[in-house]
Amino acid sequence: MPDLRVEQPKSLVAIVEERLRNAIIDAEMRFGASLSEEALSEALGVSRTPVREALARLQLQGLVTIVPKKGTFVFAPTEEDVAELCVFRYMLETQALRECMSKARAAALAAMNDALAAMEAALAGGTRHDYARADTVFHEVFFQHCGNRYLGNAYRGVSGRVAALRTHLSVPLEGEQERSMAEHHQMVEAFAAGRLADLDSILHRHIMRAWDAYADVLRSGGDPV
Amino acid sequence: MPDLRVEQPKSLVAIVEERLRNAIIDAEMRFGASLSEEALSEALGVSRTPVREALARLQLQGLVTIVPKKGTFVFAPTEEDVAELCVFRYMLETQALRECMSKARAAALAAMNDALAAMEAALAGGTRHDYARADTVFHEVFFQHCGNRYLGNAYRGVSGRVAALRTHLSVPLEGEQERSMAEHHQMVEAFAAGRLADLDSILHRHIMRAWDAYADVLRSGGDPV
DNA sequence: GATCTCCAGTCCGTATGCAAGATACAGGAA
DNA sequence: TTCCTGTATCTTGCATACGGACTGGAGATC
After folding, report:
1. Could you say which of B84, B95, B147 has the minimum Cβ distance to residue A148?
2. Is A98 exposed, middle or buried (0-12, 13-18, 19+ CB in 10 A)?
3. Whether A27 contacts A167, CB under 8 Å
4. Which structural domain range is residue A214 located in?
5. Has residue A4 been placed in a domain?
6. Does residue B101 share a domain with residue B133?
């Protein structure tokens, strides 16, 4: 028998979750914005049940905050949050790169180059949101090739916040894309050459500089989008 | 006004989640056992809604597997799973210890000593399950004092599986508790002395030896409890 | 005996209804 | 004016109902 398997249609919960996740990440909603289950269910054309379940999942990803009997809100990062998130992100990414290098170097390098090309394209001809999305894809490559599902899961658990911060906070910064692009090139070079220590320090610089930028924006009045 | 605040009663979802989590971790249910929402809701005396939500959360912790339209099952680890989990656990714990050492050394040390004493007590006078629980508490100390919520969250995301493996797989092994206890003592000593490299290697040995033990049990026929 | 078909039982996905807590605001008392 | 209080209206928490999808087995067919 040939393989005729069809993929399952996504459940409403999954659809709603993805839709809301994108809305938050792409800054269609501001930090702290209120989300009523009923209003959402009406806007999305489904009942409250799948909306409710999707919100519960998003809470576990840190993208929304559910306050019992009060309401659900888009997450609102504090400076401290962002700092801890960046430190954690660095831990995960540096470990993932280590695993990539020792286990799937060629495949990872190829994927990184593809992602880099997409970033260049977005920088040249796309919007800043396009660039932010391509940036997100680049960093996901590490985890797709690291060969450890748990590492990937842990990253997925924070990737939403990371991506949201990227869009909300770095998109408006002038010159940020160009600096970021240069650092990504350096990372790929170091990876290709197998210089792990260099890679680590570039990654560290990359993430911590992003943190600085975010902190500045946060201090100067929160969500600018 | 004196502080009269009352704590919120836990939601049914939280209660059900905790109850099921404990049931799985304490090996009241075997790996792969089937969990019907309806049967659970009846057994727990609540409706299907909170049960359903609790199961969704447990899935994200990797403790159950939900197969659409078929049913929900207690997770069933493969050898590969366990290997990846151990590697990941080592990554998280070593990072957490590093943070503890640099940020909250005294408090962490005190808490580790407390946890160690509880383990000794369980080893001397408790059941093997008691020891397993005390072991779990010991490792949680790292994350309570590491000062990074994201690191703690990531650990919580796998701690259920770790704890479940501990109970299901290591409880039946002869002499395992004593070896484990000795290693924990070594860890605390190294931490107290600030010997980070030693600490790392002890932790690595500790986790990887546990992995060996689990793998043996798994190969010899799965869940023995 | 092997295979197919149908059916009953079980499970989940979703919609909806009701109850209870939280909040905002108007209106009255000091 | 200022403070308190009752109430309308919002929110979520949970229960329940219905329908579709899947599974396993009895019986028919070859």
Report:
1. B84
2. middle
3. yes
4. 79-219
5. no
6. yes
Mean pLDDT calculated for residue range A39-49? 91
Instruction: Give distance CA A68 / C1' C20 (Å).
Output: 12
Judge: B151–A91 Cβ closer than 8 Å, yes or no.
yes
Please indicate, yes or no, if residue A7 is contained in any of the structural domains.
no
Tell me the CB-side half-sphere exposure of residue A132, using CA atoms within 13 A.
Answer: 23
A69 CB contact with strand D at below 7 Å: yes
Nearest nucleotide relative to B11: CA against C1' = D13
CATH code: domain of residue A24:
1.10.10.10
* Residue A158 counted as domain residue: yes
Contact residues for A92 (Cβ-Cβ < 8 A; gap 6+):
A143, A151, A154, A155, A158
B224 in any annotated domain = no
- The pLDDT tens digits for B172-196 are 667 778 888 999 999 999 999 999 9
Searching chain A, which residue's CA lies closest to the CA of residue B148?
A84
Q: Given A52, A74, A96, which residue is the final one in a domain? A: A74
**pLDDT (mean) for A182-210:** 93
Contacts of A12 in chain B (CB under 8 A): none
pLDDT in tens, A126-175: 888 888 899 999 999 999 999 999 999 999 999 999 999 988 876 566 77
Angle at alpha carbon of residue A60, lines to B165 and A13, rounded to 5°:
105
- CA to C1' distance (Å), from A160 to C15: 30
| A63 plus A97 within the same structural domain | no
pLDDT confidence of B113, banded at 50, 70, 90?
very high
The A-side interface with B (CB below 8 A) comprises 8, 11, 53, 56-57, 60, 62, 68, 81, 84-85, 87-88, 91, 95, 147-151, 153-154, 157-158
**Strand D nucleotides below 7 A of a protein CB?**
10-17, 20-23
Residues B95 and B152 in one domain: yes
Give CA angle at B114 (B112, B120), nearest 5°. Answer: 100
Interval B125-153: pLDDT, tens? 888 888 889 999 999 999 999 999 999 99
Question: pLDDT digits over B74-100, tens only?
Answer: 999 888 889 999 999 999 999 999 999
**How far apart, in whole angstroms, are the C-alpha atoms of residue B119 and residue B129?**
11
Considering only the beta carbons, identify the residue of B11, B88, B153 that sits closest to A148: B88
Residues 20-39 of chain B with CB under 7 A from strand C are 35-39
CATH number, position B85: 1.20.120.530
The residue ranking higher by pLDDT, A212 or A90, is: A90
Examine the domain organization and report whether A102 and A49 are in the same domain. Answer: no
Side-chain-facing half-sphere of A108: CA atoms under 13 Å: 27
For residue A100, is pLDDT > 80? yes
Give the residue-averaged pLDDT of A199-217: 88
Report the percentage of chain B scoring pLDDT > 70.
92
